[in-house]
Specification:
- The chain is an all-alpha fold and 159 residues long.
- The protein has one domain (5-73, 83-157): Four Helix Bundle (Hemerythrin (Met), subunit A), CATH 1.20.120.
- It has helices spanning 5-24, 28-32, 42-65, 89-108, 112-116, 129-152; strands at 118-119, 127-128.
- α1 (5-24) packs antiparallel against α4 and α3 runs parallel beside α4.
- The longest helix has 24 residues, at 42-65.
- It is elongated.
- It starts with a helix and ends in a 7-residue tail after the last helix.
Length: 159
């Protein structure tokens, strides 16, 4: 499996700006609205993205520092991460941006041999640093898609 990590890193650099621009367009009442029972709010998605970044950074460091890191699943509780008041969105966005900067700084210190290391993760048949980098990007964009869906989709079309 060939993964172009340079392209993924470029995209990872862009995620915080995309999220910040989108959040700036959303009305405060929409940030905290629970559109359906069991759905996270937009604020909860933003908060989750901010909260997950330190764990992700730790995984990058472990790939750098360990020969064959073994990971455990990161599974947020069954409940949403806690509603995020509209005034805290800027704090979560800043946290997301700061952790992403740390992640990118750590990625830039990696040696090519780090990209070849195989780790293990009980959820995945294969797990290495290029897969993790792609997973980070997909996680960012999955939550950003959900945010946009909660923001713009009319009730009758909300899945």
């Amino acid at each position: 499996m060939q993964i172009d990590t340079a392209k993924i890193i470029l995209c990872l650099e862009q995620s915080p700006g995309i999220l910040r621009d989108m959040a700036a367009s959303i009305l405060p009442a929409q940030i905290t609205a629970r559109r359906r029972p069991g759905f996270w709010t937009i604020g909860e998605h933003i908060g989750h993205l901010a909260q997950a970044q330190s764990m992700i950074h730790g995984r990058i460091i472990r790939f750098r520092d360990e020969n064959a890191p073994a990971f455990v699943p990161f599974i947020p509780g069954d409940d949403a991460p806690g509603d995020l008041p509209a005034e805290s969105v800027s704090q979560s966005l800043a946290k997301f941006e700061e952790w992403r900067k740390r992640q990118l700084d750590a990625i830039r210190t990696l040696h090519p041999k780090d990209l070849a290391k195989e780790g293990s993760h009980p959820e995945y048949a294969q797990y290495n640093l290029p897969i993790l980098l792609r997973h980070i990007l997909m996680h960012d964009h999955w939550h950003m898609y959900r945010i946009e869906e909660l923001w713009l989709t009319r009730d009758e079309f909300l899945g």
